[in-house]
Please model this.
Amino acid sequence: MAKTSAVERNEKRKRLAKKFASKRTRLKAIATDESLPLEERFTARIKLAALPRNSALNRVRNRCEVTGRPRAYYRKLRMSRIALRELASRGQVPGMVKSSW
Model:
C-alpha cells in the first residue's frame, strides 16, 4: 500500500484540476491567441500563473485504485500490475488466468 498522504495529495490535485479546468482552458486560449494584443495575452499568462500549481491536470499522477501504487499502472484497468496479478490469481478478474508452467 502507498502512503495515505500521497494518495490524499493526489486526490486533492484531482479536485483542484476539476475545479479550475474551465478557467484554465479559457486563460490558455487567450494567452495563445495571436490575434489579441500582446498586453492582453500577457495579462492572461499572469492570471494563469497565479492559479494554484496543483490545479494543473499534468500534476495528477495515475495511481492504482486498489493499492495506490504510482508505478506500473494499466490505464485501461486503472490498477497496477501487482494488484492485477493478485486479483487474477484469486480468479476475481473475468477471463484472466495466471499462467504457470
